[in-house]
From TrEMBL, chains A, B:
Organism ancestry: Bacteria, Bacillati, Actinomycetota, Actinomycetes, Streptosporangiales
Protein name: TetR/AcrR family transcriptional regulator
Keywords: DNA-binding
Domain HTH tetR-type: 17-77
DNA-binding region: 40-59
PANTHER family assigned: HTH-TYPE TRANSCRIPTIONAL REGULATOR RUTR, TRANSCRIPTIONAL REGULATORY PROTEIN (PROBABLY ASNC-FAMILY)-RELATED
SUPFAM superfamilies named in the record: Homeodomain-like, Tetracyclin repressor-like, C-terminal domain
DNA sequence: CAGCGAGGTTACTGGCGCGTAGGATGATGG
DNA sequence: CCATCATCCTACGCGCCAGTAACCTCGCTG
C-alpha cells in the first residue's frame, strides 16, 4: 500500500490553457483508474493540486470533462487505423498494419484505451454514440477495402469489418491483460495471420 | 412513448421462492435497460409490484442482486459455447456451431447479454472477475481444440481463441444493433466462414 | 502605489438513493 | 375463535458528491 502518487505542489498558478491541459491529464488518470462513476471531481481536482471550482471554470460539468477525453482518444484510435490502412495498397500488409494499430492503441500511454473500450457510462446517450461511432468508423474503413477488392455486398462487408475489429480489440486487450507475456509484434503477427487467412480471396469458396 | 409496461398487481402475496424468481426477473429488466448505476432499487421493487424491503429480504444488497443475474447469464454463455464445441468433432462444423452460440446468446430473451458484454461496473472487482472468467473460459475451450489439432503452443492458442471470441462477440452485437438487417443464419455463416478460413490448417504457411 | 482582474480557495447546499426500523395484515394450526 | 408466523408496507436516516456562493491574493499596469 504505497501512498498515492501525490498531488502536484499545491499553490502554483498556471495560465489558462496550461491548466486546462493539466486538468485533462489528472482527469484521465482518475477516470481510467476508477471509471466514471467512482471518480470524484474532488479527487480529480486534488490530483491536479487544485480545488474543485477551478475544474468548473474549465468544464461545465463532470460529463463534459469525460466527453472531452473520450473524444480525444476515440479520434486517436480512428486516426491510427486510418493511417494503417492508408500506409500501403498491399492488402496483406494492410491487415498486418491494422492489427498493429489496435495493439498500439491498447499499449498506449496511461491505458487510455479503457475510456473507449471499457467505459462504464455507455448507457448515457452521448457516450454510447461516441463509442459506437469509433467502432463503426473503424469497421467501415475496413469494410470499404473489403468491398473494393471482393464482390461482397455492403452489408456483408460491414459485418466482416466489425468481426475483424472485434478480433483485434478483444485479443489486444487480452494480450495486455497477460502483461505482455507474448511479445507485442508476435501477438500482432499471430492475429494478423488469422485475419488475413480469414479474409483473403473472400468471394470464392466456402 | 408508450407507458412503461406497468408493475404487476400490487398486493398479491407470493411464496418465498416464487417471489425471488419474480424479483430476479424485474431486476433483470431494469438492469438491462438502465445499467447498474442508473437502476434504482425502488424502481426494481416497483416493477415487481412490491416495496423495497421485500427486495432486501431476498438479497443482502444491490450488488449481490446484480451478481446473481450476472452469474446466471455468464454461465449460460459458457454452457452454450461448450455445447457447441461438443456437438461434433468436425472442426469446420465446430466453428460454425460456436459462432452460432454467440449469436444465440446475443439474440436471447430480454437482451440479457448486455449484463455480460456491456456491464457498467467492470471496475468493481467481483464483477470484473466474473466477466473476465466467462470470456476466458470460452477462449480456453476454443484454444483447447486449436492446441489439440495444430502444433500451436499454448500461449498462441489462447490468443487465437480470444481473437475468435472477440470476432464472434463484437460482430454479433453489431448484427443485433442493426436490428437483424441480415438474417441471423446468414450472419452466422459469414462470420463462421471468416473464422474457419482463418483458423483451419493453422500450423503451416503464413 | 492603487486598483483591477485572472486565478484560486473554503465552505456550503441540495438531491438522490441505498439500506433499515417498526408496524400492519393475511394465512395456518390449535 | 385466538395465536403465531411469514409476508409486506410506510416512512425515515444518513452518506455521498456534483455543483455553487462568496471571498481571497498575486502580480501587472497606469
Amino acid at each position: 500500500m504505497t501512498a498515492t502518487p501525490d498531488a502536484r505542489p499545491r499553490g502554483t498558478r498556471l495560465p489558462r490553457l496550461a491548466r486546462r491541459r493539466q486538468l485533462l491529464g489528472a482527469a484521465q488518470e482518475v477516470f481510467v483508474a476508477q471509471g466514471y462513476h467512482a471518480a470524484a471531481m474532488d479527487e480529480i481536482a486534488e490530483r491536479a493540486g487544485v480545488s474543485k471550482p477551478v475544474l468548473y471554470q474549465h468544464f461545465p460539468g463532470k460529463l463534459e470533462l469525460y466527453l472531452a477525453l473520450l473524444d480525444e482518444h476515440a479520434e486517436a484510435l480512428v486516426n491510427t487505423v486510418r493511417d494503417a490502412l492508408g500506409s500501403t495498397t498491399d492488402n496483406k500488409l494492410r491487415v498486418q498494419a491494422s492489427m498493429q494499430a489496435f495493439y498500439d492503441f491498447v499499449a498506449g500511454e496511461g491505458e487510455a484505451y479503457r475510456l473507449v473500450f471499457e467505459s462504464d457510462l455507455r448507457n448515457v446517450a452521448p457516450v454510447r454514440a461516441r463509442v459506437e461511432r469509433a467502432n463503426t468508423q473503424c469497421a467501415e474503413m475496413i469494410a470499404q477495402v473489403i468491398a473494393e477488392d471482393t464482390n461482397a455486398p455492403a452489408d456483408e462487408a460491414h459485418l466482416l469489418g466489425m468481426g475483424l475489429v472485434g478480433m483485434a480489440e478483444v485479443s489486444a486487450r487480452y494480450w495486455l491483460s497477460q502483461h505482455r507475456a507474448i511479445p507485442k509484434d508476435t501477438a500482432e503477427k499471430i492475429i494478423a495471420r488469422l485475419a488475413w487467412r480469414g479474409i483473403s480471396g473472400f468471394p470464392r469458396t466456402g
